[in-house]
What we know:
The structure holds two protein chains of two kinds. By secondary structure, chain A is an alpha/beta fold.
Amino acid sequence: xxVFLSFFLVLFSVTAAAQTPPTxxxxxxxxxxxxxxxxxxxxxxxxxxxxxxxLNQILxxxxxxxxxxxxxxxLDGGTAPGLAVIFARAQGxxxxxxxxxxxxxxxxxxxxxxxxVKDDGPIKSVKDLKGGTIAVVGIKTxxxxxxxxxxxxxxxxxxxxxxxxxxGFPVIGDAVRTGKVSAGTFxxxxxxxxxxxxxxxxxxxxxxxxxxxxxxxDIFFGEKFLKSNPEAVRAFLSDYVAVTKYYLANTEQxxxxxxxxxxxxxxxxxxxxxxxxxxxxxGRVNVDSLKKLATFMHEKxxxxxxxxxxxxxxxxxxxxx
Amino acid sequence: MSRLLPLAIxxxxxxxxxxxxxxxxxxxxxxxxxxxIFNELVSFFSKSEYLMEAWVSLYRALGGFGLAAAAGVTxxxxxxxxxxxxxxxxxxxxxxxxVPKLALFPIFIFVFGIGSLSKVALVFLECLYPIxxxxxxxxxxxxxxxxxxxxxxxxxxxxxxxxxxxxxxAPFIFAGLRVALPIALxxxxxxxxxxxxxxxxxxxxxxxxxxxxxxxxxxxVVIAAMGWALDKGLVMxxxxxxxxxxxxxxYV
Lengths: 321, 252
């Protein structure tokens, strides 16, 4: 009797394990990733979740920690700025961008990162930043890249002519107002909050600095995970694209759901009013913009010791056709 | 022989590290080999801009530490020798000792700016506590027989302080300074990691952001060496000044 029971128990366990879809351990951030957060909040929008894959989203405050967790084998994929993936690829990390989350672009109703100064201050153009300080959110982040690009465009040498210092988004507004820094980086919802207070004006934007629309945030996966779980990734991206389309068509409802679930701490009325980054409904990656960014990082900023092969870094074959 | 004893721990640790790095079990981005770290170390010392970053961190750390030493020893002596000052200030220092002053750094940035001053001010605050508390204990615990002897021999209050209290409290003063010195270095590095465009902390975060773990660890080795050298210098100074009660460490 005991033998029979044990046999059925083992058989049941093996069958159950075989039926359990793979879990995607996914490192996420805390800004501009609305579609991904919605995948956890509104599972009714993701028909493949629980069947073809399970999603475990893990919050990280910054890219280096997220990448260290990935390199240590604690994550299968995650979100990351395109330039951070370029850095990682330059160091030989086996990761690939598989989809776009949002882009820095300009246009009506589209938000692009702003660099603001005191309205009544002496800085009228980027050239006036000579001898001053510009606050970014982190060293070698996208905000750092745009700041340096803006300075280079104006003929200034970053670090020599203008200091670039890291500072948390919440304090940059007051730092600019009190003159502790000459200019600062502003993203939503801090941009809207500071604009409402008045006294600050935009000096340049991320798109002005770079000169073209470009990838801001992307989804990456480890190459090993892609090879061993292609169907799970396809199903995940199919749901992701469906949720992105839902988000774009029902932004207010989606934002309300995210706020209710605690993914966003900004007061709901403010959050609903803030303009959003450009999101492509099909999740396709602007590969050309990544190539230009990689060239800029290598040639102008000397952030890369050697060029990075961007084509080998992006694989859009897992996105729905 | 005793000076070589720490190598019994350090050498196996280094060998274990190198074996782990070469095992292929971990990514070299997490466990870079000692050879790579050494190469980065050589590169560090061959670049004047890197040495400049070390100097920036050093002067910030020593600036804050020096100010804290001056203020802390004075305050500690006053608290130790004056019952009234002790009753007034003891609860303040004891009650707020555990507060992580680093949490105040954003406020310091607003008051003192992003440059060196905010970092020096925070180093000063962090270092002040151990110096004041340990110095006051030393000043309070001066042997009464020594004090009575000085008074019986007609020593003035100033002479008693200079010839009896300060020498008797000196081992405590240096103990406080030894506790505070590494704190100075740690605080400087952390503040530079949080918000700075220069210094070794900035180099750490810059290397980390580029996923250059070998370079980051080379900077950590430099920081450790600086801490070791500073402590050694302080112990040597202590043993010269407090010659009647020498401190025995493995390196002095």
